[in-house]
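Predict the assembly for these two chains.
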Amino acid sequence: EPEVTQTPSHQVTQMGQEVILRCVPISNHLYFYWYRQILGQKVEFLVSFYNNEISEKSEIFDDQFSVERPDGSNFTLKIRSTKLEDSAMYFCASRDTGEDTEAFFGQGTRLTVV
Amino acid sequence: AQRVTQPEKLLSVFKGAPVELKCNYSYSGSPELFWYVQYSRQRLQLLLRHISRESIKGFTADLNKGETSFHLKKPFAQEEDSAMYYCALRPLWGYNKLIFGAGTRLAVHP
């Protein structure tokens, strides 16, 4: 069964450093998403991406965040200058077109900012 | 405001007991409601959705628009049901992000 794949599974970075989280969505899917989950809190929507552009973003997704689909298969989330409060589990998801389709999630990347 | 509330952080039951995981939502319209499950060390996966009205792994959930609820039920819990359960809402407009509740950890004891 096709899966959404995220790398790395765990990333430790120093405060102020840039970090790129990578995702390979399911190949025929057209909608892509990033969510995050701070330890002990709910899963929160960050951004959705469709047709090579951001379609919706939350207030969390400020200028420090960016997304890209550089080569037609990867979907990346970049945090330009990490802060301690960016420490969280980051989930990528993808979905096929159509009202009825479900979102498939990756296994997550745990980002720890020290 | 769009919101999903799962009032219980932890639900602890014995094997064979009935289970009800509560979910209430706030949305000015007709959303889609989902239950996602996350077993230990695994990814979030869809358990069921209100539009399909099916039973998965013995779980059912009925959308009650009057009470704005979408509680998840199972008559006889099994140990393998132990997991985190997330209720989620998907607005019918926009690019279909999911709005999650805080999750309920179900622990089924032998």
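The interface with chain B takes residues 3-4, 31, 33, 35, 41-45, 48, 50, 55-56, 91, 93, 95, 100, 102-103, 105-108 of chain A (CB under 8 Å). Chain A has a mean pLDDT of 94.
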